[in-house]
Amino acid sequence: MKKIFYFAVAMLTPVVATAQFATPTDGFNNNGTRAAQFLKLAVGARAAAMGGAYAAIAKDGSALFWNPAGISNFRNNKVHLSHVDYLLDVSFNFAGLVLPVGKSSHVGFSAATLTMDDEKVTSEVDPDGQLGITWSASDFAVGLTYTRTISDRFSVGVTGKYIQQNIVNSSAKTLAIDIGSLYDIGYRGIKIGMSMSNFGGKLKLGGRDLTQKGIEISSGQDGTAGQSANLQVNSWSLPLNFRVGLSYELMRNEQSVLLLAADFNHPTDADERLNFGAEYAFNNRVFLRGGYKFNYEEETYAAGGGLNLPLTGYNLIIDYAFTDYGILGNVHWFSLDFDF
Question: What total of structural domains would you count in the chain?
C-alpha cells in the first residue's frame, strides 16, 4: 500500500500542477514574462547532444537538473561538472555531487551559475566609459536533492533550491522545488520519466540602485524637497516547466547499444515543445549522439560524443556537444563525470 501511495503521488502531482500553469491560448504564449531564464539552460553535454531528450535516461550527475529521480540507481559517489560558453559572451557552469545514503536513498548537491565579464559604464558625459567604472550581472542557484527508490523499477525525487539574480547593485531571490519520478518498464530499456521544475516563489528586484534621492514630493511645501524614495518594481514568476520523457533501446548486443529518447515539454512561457535524441554506444566506451528540437524559436539540431575512460579507482566520462541556435550562432558544451 505504501508503494502504491508513493507511485500515485509521484505520477499525479505533475499532472495536477499542469492544470495550474496551462499556457494561455488566443495567440499569446507568455514569451518574456518569466524571470531567471538561466534555469532553462540544458545541463551536461550528453543531454545537449541528444537534443534535451533526457527525462527518462538521465543517469549521471546532470539528472539533478533534468529529473531528480534519475540519481536513484547510483551505486557510487558521482560528480558532474559542465561548462558552456553561451551566446553573447555569457558563461554557464553547473556542478553536482551525488551520494548514496543507505540502500534505497540518495542525496545530491548542485550549483548553477550564469556569469558575464564586467562591462564599462557609459553616460552622456563619458560615452566611451573612460572613467573605468564597470557593472556586471550574474545568476546562480544552489540545490539540495533527496531521492527514494520505491522498488527496483520505480523511484521519486525532490529538489529544493535557492535562486538569486544580480545586476549592478540590485538583486532578487526566491525559493523553488523540482519534483521527479522515473519508472523502468523492464523491457527493451523502456523508461518513463516525469518532472516538474521551478515551482516556487517570485523574483522581485531590490537594492540601492532602486533608491532615488533628492526628490521633491510636493512643490511649494516646506520639508518636501530632498527626500528619498524607492522605485516600485513588479514581481516575476519563475519559468515553470512540466516534462515527460520516454526511452527505448532499439538495438542491444554484446558490443553495441542504440538508445532512442523523446521528451515532451510544457513550459509556462512558451508553446509546447518536442525533443528527440539518439545515442549509439560501442563497448560502453565510445558514444555518438544526435538530437533535434521541434517548436523552438532558433534551436534545432544537436550532435556530440563521449568517451568512458576507466581509471584506477573511478570511471571518468568526457562528453562534448554542438548545438545550433540558428541566426544566433553555435554553442559548444563540455562536461565531465566521474565516480569515486
Answer: 1
In this prediction, residue 117 carries a pLDDT of: 84
Q: Is residue 75 part of a domain?
A: yes
Q: In this structure, is residue 224 part of a structural domain?
A: no
Q: What is the pLDDT of residue 218?
A: 59
The residue range of the domain holding 287 is 2-24+32-123+131-210+229-339
The residues of the chain scoring below 70 in pLDDT are 1-29, 213-228, 312-313
Query: pLDDT at position 27, please?
Result: 56
pLDDT of residue 282: 95
Distance between CA atoms of 68 and 59, rounded to whole angstroms? Answer: 10
The answer to whether 79 touches 60, Cβ cutoff 8 Å, is: no
**Quick one: cell of 252?**
542491444
Q: Is residue 74 part of a domain?
A: yes
DSSP state of 50: T
Calpha distance 334→91 (Å, rounded): 12
The verdict on residue 221 lying in a domain is no
One DSSP character per residue, 19-46 reads HHSPPP-TT---TT--S-GGGGS--SHH
Model confidence, pTM: 0.86
* CB atoms near residue 199 (< 10 Å): 18
In whole angstroms, give the CA distance from residue 288 to residue 321: 10
